[in-house]
Design a protein that fits this description.
Helix content: 25-40%
CATH architecture: Alpha-Beta Complex
Number of helices: 3
Largest sheet: 7 strands, mixed
Distance between the termini: 27 Å
CATH topology: Aldehyde Oxidoreductase, domain 3
Order of helices and strands: EHEEEEHEEHEE
Radius of gyration: 16 Å
Number of strands: 9
Length: 143
C-alpha cells in the first residue's frame, strides 16, 4: 500500500481542509462524507483523560487497512477513499482518525463510511494509552 495512513500526532484542520480541496477537481464526485474521531476527555476512576498515545505495528496495521480499503472498493461504488490515523500523542479535543469517502451519489457514501470506520475500529491493531496528567496512564479499551 503506497498511501500514507499514519500521521505523527494530531490530524490538523489544515490537513483535512487540504484533502477536501484536492477533491474539488474530480468532477465525477457527487458526494463526500467525512468521519472525524476526536480524543475525548473521558473520566476513568475519577481521573480525566488528558491525551492518548497511539501505537501500532505499522506493517501489520497497513496490511489490514489495505484489506479494508480493497473490500470497501469491491462492496461499494467508491470514487475515492482515504483513511488516516494518528500515531503518538494526541491531546483531548484533537482529531486522531480521519476517514474521507467519495462517491457519485449521496446514499452510498453514508453506508460506505460507516462500514469502513467500524472495520478500522474492530480490526486494525492500534493501541491507545490513556494519559491522566504527568505520570498516570492505562491502556485504552476500544468501544
Amino acid at each position: 500500500m503506497s498511501k500514507k495512513v499514519f500521521i505523527e500526532g494530531a490530524i490538523s484542520p489544515q490537513f483535512i481542509a487540504d484533502a477536501i480541496t484536492k477533491h474539488q477537481r474530480k468532477m465525477n464526485i457527487g458526494a463526500h462524507n467525512i468521519f472525524l474521531g476526536q480524543v475525548r476527555e473521558d473520566k476513568v476512576d475519577g481521573k480525566k483523560v488528558s491525551a492518548i498515545d497511539f501505537s501500532c505495528y505499522e506493517a501489520m496495521a497497513e496490511k489490514k487497512i489495505a484489506e479494508i480499503r480493497e473490500d470497501a472498493f469491491n462492496k461499494f461504488d467508491l470514487i475515492c477513499m482515504h483513511i488516516y490515523h494518528s500515531i503518538g500523542q494526541v491531546e483531548a479535543g484533537q482529531i486522531c482518525i480521519f476517514v474521507f469517502v467519495s462517491t457519485a451519489h449521496r446514499p452510498e457514501v453514508y453506508e460506505a463510511t460507516e462500514y469502513i470506520v467500524n472495520r478500522v475500529k474492530k480490526e486494525v491493531p492500534l493501541f491507545g494509552k490513556e494519559h491522566f496528567g504527568e505520570e498516570a496512564y492505562q491502556w485504552k479499551k476500544n468501544v
